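Open question from group meeting: does this chain pack into something compact, or does most of it stay loose? Before anyone orders reagents, we agreed to write out a predicted structure and look at it together. Recording both the input and the output here so the notebook holds the full record.
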Amino acid sequence: LWKADFQDFLLDFNNKKQNITLKINRLTVNNQDILPFDKTGILEQSIEQTHELDLSYDQNQVTFGFSLIDFDNASKNRFRYQLVGIDEDWIEAGTAHYVNFSQLPTGSYTFKLMGSADGSYWSKPIDLKITVHPPFYRTWWAYLLYLSLVSLIAYRFYQAQLNRVRLQQQL
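Structure tokens returned:
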């Protein structure tokens, strides 16, 4: 009887460790809480159900709040994160329930987060893709426009020089 109770305890303990639920539950952009369908238009649903964020170039200060659904020992919940595209390795956040990224350059990133109830067994990472779009003057359309303008100016300069040479030859 004792052996069966101990095996049930171990089975229950292992199942509990494997069922760690980790959530990103708060999004702040430029020190402003972001909610679904607010005036920023960033979220179309809650941050817990969002898998991708599209931000403009001036929305580059981002804070994520997160939690581990483990109320048995919440003060010992630990976290680690990685912003793929910036961080090469996982960053230990300890017991902090948020992470802040300032001055994100334009580009595509993946925010990965892991949690642990006891520091020994870590959850599977959850991912959130982040795209910070460049301002218009740094898009390929703008570069095409710049190239066109430079080409037009060079062509006009060439035409003016050609006309000047022709006029000199006529004299």
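Observations to bring back to the group:
Residues 9-15 have pLDDT under 50 and may be disordered.
The beta strands are 22-29, 32-33, 52-55, 62-68, 78-84, 91-94, 98-101, 107-116, 126-132.
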